[in-house]
Design brief:
Distance between the termini: 46 Å
Number of helices: 5
Number of strands: 5
Helix content: 25-40%
Shape: globular
Radius of gyration: 16 Å
Order of helices and strands: EHHEEHHEEH
Largest sheet: 5 strands, antiparallel
Strand content: 25-35%
Oligomer: single chain
Amino acid sequence: MQAKITIEVEYEWKPVINDEGKKYSFPMRFKEFKRGFRSYYNFPAIYRWVIRKNEEIIAVYLGEAENIGRRVYGYLNPGPSQQTNKRLNSLFHECISTGLKVELELLKIHKLRIHGYGISPVDLSSKHLRLLLENLMIEIHRQNGYVLLNKDVEETVPKSCREF
């Protein structure tokens, strides 16, 4: 017997902004951006790092985090075993040195229905739900032709900003 599952998501990407309305951009330190950033952004999230040239998105990295404040800290201060954080930290610094912007955005879900059941409010504390939404967003970005920086998703991830 065949089964059918439908997923309906209404969403938008929201830039991380501080109290003055300024967008967070890499590698701004938390204290410079928003007082109490790590404690304020102490929640699970789906996020994307967006590399922009003249306000146009030219590349994206998508991820999920149990604690977005801690995850961003890891990109700014990668540990020796954090290969993805080290790779992106280096790439982002190179992009900035060539005049590109690297900004952080969070997924805001307005409506989520899976198999006819509404999930509201969306509880991203569930790792399974975060992974489902992260992979759904990766596929949407792929279908829309974005350059993806997710190494486990793309076979040919750009190693340099000059490849964009």
